[in-house]
Design brief:
Elements (H helix, E strand, L loop, with lengths): L16 H20 L6 E4 L3 E5 L5 E7 L2 E4 L8 E4 L3 E2 L3 E12 L2 E12 L2 E10 L5 E10 L5 E14 L8 E4 L11 E4 L4 E2 L16 E5 L4 E6 L11 E5 L2 E14 L4 E3 L3 E6 L4 H12 L16 E3 L9 H14 L3 E4 L21 H13 L3 E6 L3 E2 L4 H5 L14 E2 L4 E3 L5 H17 L4 E5 L21 H4 L1 H15 L4 E5 L16 E2 L6 H15 L5 E5 L9 H6 L3 E4 L17 H17 L5 E2 L12 E7 L2 E11 L2 E4 L6 E6 L4 E7 L3 E4 L2 E11 L1
Parallel strand pairs: 21-22, 21-31, 22-23, 23-27, 27-28, 29-30, 30-31
Antiparallel strand pairs: 1-2, 2-3, 3-4, 5-6, 5-11, 7-8, 8-9, 9-10, 10-19, 10-20, 11-18, 12-13, 12-15, 14-17, 15-16, 16-20, 17-18, 24-26, 25-26, 32-33, 33-34, 34-39, 35-38, 36-37, 36-39
Helix pairs in contact: 2-9, 6-8
Length: 696
Amino acid sequence: MLVLHGPPTRENTAPSPLTIVAMVLACLLLVSMTSAGQDTAPLQIQSSNLRVEFDARLRSRIVARKPDGEVSLGPFSASETLSTENQVWQDFSLVSHKEEAASGFLGEGRRLTLIGQSGALRKTVAVTLYDKFPTLALFDVEYQNTGSQPLKIQSWSNNSYAINALAGSSPPFWSYQPASYAKRPNWILPLHAGFKQQNYLGMNASDYGGGTPILDIWRPDVGIAIGHIDPRPREVSLPVSMPDSRSVHIAILYRKPRTLAPGESFHTLPTFVNVHPGDYFRTLETYRAVMQQQGFQMASAPDSAFGPIWCAWGYGRTMQPRQLIDTLPTVKTLGFVWVTLDDAWQNNYGDWLPDPKKFPRGDADMKALVDRIHQEGFKAQLWWSPLSAAPHSRLFREHPDYLLENADGSHRKISWWNSFYLCPADRDVVEYHKALVRKFLGDWGFDGLKLDGQHMNGVPACYNPAHHHQHPEDSVEQLPDLFREIYQAAKSVKPDALVEFCPCGTAFSFFTMPHFNMSVASDPESSFQVRSKAKTIKGLMGDDVPYFGDHVELSDGADDFASTVGVGGVVGSQFVLPALAPKPGKSDLTPARKKEFAKWLQIYRSKMLSRGEYLGELYDLGFDLPEAHVIRKDRALYYAFFARRWNARVELRGLESRAYRVVDYEHGRDYGVVRGPTAHLEAPFQKHLLLEAQPQ
């Protein structure tokens, strides 16, 4: 250790040569220790909620800082790596480091910058913690070729960690998985030994792809999320694997070959780590707040968007306009606000003209149908599938220049409708879509649109030479721009237009979310998907954009209104009148179902929880039992509990320190008065329990 003394005395006014040498060596030793660090004293940067630690090889680990103590989430690991043709560059010898004040688009904070070297490759890692986001660490990683030969890069990986399981927890982890697959799996999954999912946000099937670039893993005591904050969709992967019961491995991986010339450098995408208590909901809120600082603002919805929706899809593709018209009196009696003309009104996918077999006078008949819907007091919504063109359509024949092409020149299939992709990055395609919007809303008079199809969530790279793309990935990265222009065109024709976005069964892409004003459960496979999608979308979009629980016929038992009401969703149905339907089916509105529908529509209208605030941080969707959701509206709290059968107490969280009267608002049962901030009730139930807590 170097010790500095006071000024020299008269007896020793000049140091000896040996003293000078000793002082120089001591200074060099101090500089070396400062630059290279020590394995026993890792370099670190921390906030009140997390700490990022690095060792002398630039491996890192994450430590969660909680009120009751610190939790190291796993061992040091090669968290930022680069793969070339012949090797994976994992360990880098620390060359230098510094910590300094930082100022950026998220405000003021601190930044730790580390430089490491491995052969001909230099790595710079800058970790920034912002005062306003104490749970979040942003990573900026740069690689430079300092050698004399080019490096052929295959991929890079950031924020690769092994997260330790908590002893005794079963399951060890729950997770939010962001990718889209043709099997339409749950987004919220428990993890067990042997689990593995790549979470590629490119195309995982011909027409299934895209998602939100966040992976969240949580234990009962703490959670960790990783992702990127680039403002464009990127074909990254967020792989998660659990090789055994002791830990789970996560990372951000980007496979994009490139050559790094001598002296050249590049930056990875800006990535992040977020730590949190509870489930993934806080991460989604944090991500939304960060992206808002980059200009992502959610749309506004008209008052009518919160009205219940009846869709004629129950009659299927053979539906005739007379069936829709003859159902309207029942639709009105039950209290629906919107009437949706669904798939099969059109002559084909691509041309979007009225089917002459159903609308023999073409546009005139379509206008007449919309007028009739309006005369009955409803809003009219039109189903539409952008970006698709059937091979027999005139558009397909006359405008091959509109089509998205694979690298081999073939067209990309949209499986559900036996159609092909149009390219969203082609200007003529964009203008064609805008013209359709003006016709649907302006000429025909519809009040809103239902954009539908799994293919809308992600597109493949486009190699059509007619488009003159700068990069084939232009189609991937400019997909949100198409929907922005569709939305703006709709608002220009009708400022209070409703634009519903239904990317059937896929994991919503955040990048499209600012460009519609109604989200939807998008063909849920179960009631759990209705509820878990609600929590996810409300975390990403907030409460101002209504969430449509989709047709109740898609829920468990085809009658689970409680799942939509309980999470603050808008209710809807595709019921049919048996006398008008070609054959019996689950959508038939029998007398018993009509009575049940009337009950739930009345509950929905009286409570209007879709206008409330979803309090997603109060309950853990994975580890808390029974499953619980809370809506705050005015001064009251509305609890929704779900379980196949529950025979124990339920816990009411989020109350103020005062008295509340608790009522089962579905059945009218009074549970008496409880006192906050937390209360317990003996309330056994089957399937669901809906409680209203009014302050006294």
